Amino acid sequence: MANQIEKNIEELRDLIREHDYKYYVLAEPVISDEDYDRLVKELERLEAENPGLITPDSPTQRVGKDLTKEFKPVTHKVPMLSLANTYNEEELYDFDRRVRNTLPPGEAVEYVVEPKIDGASVSLNYVDGYLKTAATRGDGVVGEEITVNTKTIKSVPLKLKNYKSFKKSLNDFEARGEIFMKIKDFKQLNKEREEQGEKLFANPRNSAAGTLKIQDPQIVAKRPLNIFLYMLVSTEEEFITQMENLELLKKLGFNVNKEYELCRNMDEVLRSCRRLEAKRESLEYEIDGAVIKVNSIRQQKLLGSIAKSPRWAVAFKFKAKQAFTKINKITWQVGRTGAVTPVAELEPVFLSGSTLSRATLHNYDEIKRKDIREGDTVVIEKGGDVIPKVVSVVEIERGKNSRPAKPPDNCPVCGSPLFKPENEVAYYCENTECPAQIKGRIEHFAARGAMDIEGLGEALIDLFVERGFLNTYADIYDLKDRREELVAVERLGNKSIDNLLAAIEDSKKQPFSKVLFALGIRYVGAGAARKLADHFLTIDKMITAGEDEISKVHEIGPSISGSVKKFFSSKANLNIIQRLKEHGLNFKSEVKKAGDNFFTGKTFVLTGSLSTFSREEAGEKIIALGGKVASGVSKKTDYVVAGENAGSKLDKAESLGIKILNEEEFLKHLKE
């Protein structure tokens, strides 16, 4: 009897999986929603009566009940490289020439053209036919685990189809793809959010990426996420072609975009790209270009990669979509650094998956150059299909009473006089207590990539600043003492506030480099913050360092060093840092200096392109092992690490008799 129940349960699971595949992958349902729901309820009943027979791959286990408290790091089997972009036919032919020049003479080259899905990259690891983990791309080497959320997507198989029927060894592999939302599903989601008074998503890509980082999988399950898979990666099996990979993915039950095409030469590639671009408006999902890949896996390996991009693939970006609309008004907004920038308030227009009502005008010089005025009819586009901008003015439609725009004399938020530094295009509000600057600094501090405080977004920051709860980002860590006041705020409540306070507490685990970036020092981006943190190791050493010493850090120039010194010369900033220290934030680098090794005390210069990692990453490894990295070759240089296409630095090193390391030798010393 027990064996029969187990058999019935497994047969029911297989039937539901098949219907999921036909509905969510093939878009060819064969039963009604009512009949499908009846099958699921019957499976739920049998599993409830026999809990010992519940397995992780069961269709009933797609939506977990536990909150994801943290997204753990996952190391990809093979790095998830980003693609270099091309924008015209000439650049595509250059790519083709580079491919042919690198391969052995006379080898024929085929290409596969696939649509470039505008979504969130993901890698799915399957072991013995079952989904084990799902991870974001991250930095290409290490991503964040999003398995629980990815399982809610019904086009992601929890158990593979026909897994044991293939000759290929597929015991452990990664399937890579893009998670996205269909345009109609995105519009419906935004309509529902508008009806509920919630903030609207900017575009399908942002909504998909944001959904994957929600801590509650039951909320994720309600979002209309979908997936296309485009690559199969295995360290234990050799594949022949990309076309073979795509066909294999389909047979295993994955949702593979059908718009791919095999091309024998670059002329055919261009025709395929233009075909995709022409179909762009009729597709159910957003694409922003085409991906061109060398079909032969053997040739892909021969071509290898440069820094973070493969030599065997490239993206062909489509022309930005444009639309006509009217500028109702030119307003000025204040950023966290006090920079006052103009914004065009537009007659709402739908473009590239979202309704636009604002567009950046960059600065006053840009307004003068294009002669942009209120009331003008303009052409707008999304730069890189993301940021709306005004391309040009339709002057023939301009009214007779039109007048050129002028910058304000005073800050539009606090009323303080504006200041325009010499040799800069921006105007600045110098009042550091300006509410707009306060909001901007706190928003930057809490953002992903900085302190990553889940739930502390723009709307909540605006509310907390206006109510006096936040005046500096150090005040974030005092919010726990205001819990009762926060809970009493309309539309908040116990659960949301407790989640926010937990996220604030969790942010204290962020490494020194991210804390340093979060401080919002002008010109100090995430990369510069990492270099400074690795060099000085503690905030105290950085505070006491002179401007010259800061400039000696690899790729830190006078603009950054001057800005860092100015920031730490402010008593107000030092007081905030002291408060953050008292709250337990990390102001010491995790980089540990190694004992004596090949790199200790030596000075290195990097030149050319490395295939294993970028020059920046190589420099960080040298510094972590006790070495120094210089930007120029001199008699004090101990070694020059020369990658592909090394230039004048290599010539100078040879003329000075300085020792040269190729990439293989450099890697060997790293492993010692």
Protein architecture, described:
- The structure is a single chain.
- The chain is α+β, with helices and mostly antiparallel strands.
- Helices cover 36% and strands 20% of the residues.
- The protein has 24 helices and 24 strands.
- The strands form six sheets. Strands 14, 15, 16, 17, 18, 19 and 20 form a seven-stranded antiparallel sheet that branches.
The helicity comes to 25-40%
CATH hierarchy class name of the largest domain: Alpha Beta
* Inertia-based shape: globular
Whole-number total of structural domains: 6
Total helical elements: 24
Mean pLDDT across every amino acid position:
87
Rg computed from alpha carbons, rounded to a whole number of angstroms: 28 Å
Largest sheet: 7 strands, antiparallel
Would you identify the CATH H-level superfamily of the largest domain?
A: DNA ligase/mRNA capping enzyme
Q: Percent of residues in beta strands?
A: 15-25%
Distance between the termini: 62 Å
Content-based structural category = alpha+beta
- If you consult CATH, what is the topology of the largest domain? D-amino Acid Aminotransferase, Chain A, domain 1
Number of strands: 24
Identify the CATH architecture of the largest domain.
2-Layer Sandwich
